[in-house]
Amino acid sequence: ATNLLNLARVAQASGKPVESHVQLDQLLADAPLTLPHERQAEAAGRKAQLYLAESNLDLAAHWAARGEALCGETCPTLAALMNLRAMAALRSGDQSGALTQAARALAASDERSPERTNAHRLMGEAQLQGRNAANALVALRNALALDQALGLPTRIHRDLELLGQASEALGQVEEARAFRSRAQAVLSATTKLLTPTAAAEGQIGRAHV
Predict the structure, then answer these.
(1) How far is CA 180 from the centre of its chain?
(2) Hey, which of 10, 79, 198, 204 would disulfide with 115, CB 3.0 to 4.6 Å?
(3) What is the pLDDT of residues 86-107, one digit of tens each?
(4) In whole angstroms, what is the distance from residue 93 CA to residue 190 CA?
């Protein structure tokens, strides 16, 4: 079972979603007898992430919820699964659902967990979607501060882009221009260092999940 999970991770990181689905389906079919609930939850989360990448939002939400049910309150993937549910809701246009799931992820994550920054960012995106740019700015500044502390350049780039959108929505033209300029500088500095495998990894793909 552990070998199948590793194969699914490699296939996902290599941009082979069909192969990853096959490995995960085989693993989950046998999981009740062979795999601890925490690993089952990770496998379900990977299914959710694959479906998000395919824009199959209903199945993404289903698998993230299934993973959360398997997880239990102390499972290390819990906050990531909640964030995946928030992402599915956000992309479905469900601002309220996205805010609810991101707030749950925030409460379930450690102070220096990357999932905490993801939760802040998702809350900011949901607030932007709901045309509440002032609240979005607060959430996105929180995400940026944590991402800078953790040294996560691709996420810093995303934070700065979103801060530019929020500032523009508030009519803060100079601030928006400054955020976008910083975002471009971060992108330029990191693009050549970002490998295809690193770019393919998402929330479930990283070590914290």
Answers:
(1) 22
(2) 79
(3) 999 999 999 999 999 999 999 9
(4) 31
Closest CA to 160 of 122, 177, 102, 111: 177
Strands (E), the chain: none
Tracing tokens 């501060």 back to the chain, one arrives at 145
* Tens of pLDDT, residues 152-200: 999 999 999 999 999 999 999 999 999 999 999 999 988 766 544 333 3
The residue type of 106 is: L
Query: What is the DSSP code (8-state) at residue 14?
Result: T
Given the structure tokens 């994550």, which residue do they identify? 109
Indicate the pLDDT class of residue 206, thresholds 50, 70 and 90. very low
Average pLDDT, stretch 111-117?
Answer: 90
Q: Where are the alpha helices (DSSP H) in the chain?
A: 2-13, 17-34, 37-53, 57-71, 78-91, 95-108, 114-129, 133-150, 153-169, 173-190, 196-200
- 59: Cα within 13 Å, side-chain hemisphere: 11
Three-state secondary structure call for residue 197: helix
